[in-house]
Amino acid sequence: MVTTVEVRPLLTATGFLTRKYLFADATPENGDESVPLPVWAFYIYHPGKKIQALWDLGIAKDSSKISPSIQEAMAAVMKPTITQDAAEILTSNGISPADINYLLISHPHVDHIGDPSKFPNAMMILGKGTQAYCRPAWPISPDSGFVEENFPDGRVRELEDADYATSVGPWPKAHDLFDDGSVLLIDAPGHLPGHQVALVRTERGRLLLGGDSCHHCAHLTSFQKGGNMSYVMHLDEDDARLNLERIDRFLKKEEDVKLCLAHVGEHNEGFEKIYGNA
């Protein structure tokens, strides 16, 4: 029997990036033009095991959860608007944040790690190499863009080599979260060390939750050498390009898969289920 999960989108914030952060061919004339930037998170429910998880959290409303250096940068560049954060969206749809079991974090940038304290019973799962890169964080490291409090003691699990016991298409390292193939956490560094994507199986198709593999729909066709994608927001350009090549190959081969990136596209109105392309 094939096990599936339910997935629902959460539009946790809206903001902007300028073209110079997105496109290598931005010019002085158009480089400061604003491009809309949604901030998506995703609720995952495993009906068989009664497990509830979130893929990313969006941005924290509480400024104490954001380091001073990042607060300044966000005000100048992204200028986010948060009507309801992830916890408030869940609450307004009858789901208690205290009942969330897992926080599956693609990577710990401010617009993904949100405010974990609002989910007091959830285990945070990070990709291998995440904490070595971003900790010690603020305030221990005053200039850090990450916050120590967002890695709650006793509630953080970072995947290790032994956890990556399977593979997915072109990706050699994947972790079967529920041991039934319904949610696979895939090692996909490039944007940051430890960046991960997830392949999630629903009733009508699969979703590839892509995190920050890229930041604009045009990047899916312009990541090749000579293309106009900018890698200024990716720590390792070669790994970021390799991950996009893998996504491209996978989507072309697997017709039932829909890509859901953190800052790209639109999903169903409200808190409705989303499915793959089948």
Automatic annotation (TrEMBL):
Residues 38-263 form the Metallo-beta-lactamase domain. The keyword Zinc applies. Its cofactor is Zn(2+). Signal peptide: none annotated. Pfam families: Lactamase_B (PF00753). Keywords: Hydrolase, Metal-binding, Zinc. GO terms for molecular function: hydrolase activity; metal ion binding. Belongs to the metallo-beta-lactamase superfamily. This is Metallo-hydrolase/oxidoreductase. It comes from Morchella conica CCBAS932. The lineage of its organism: Eukaryota, Fungi, Dikarya, Ascomycota, Pezizomycotina.
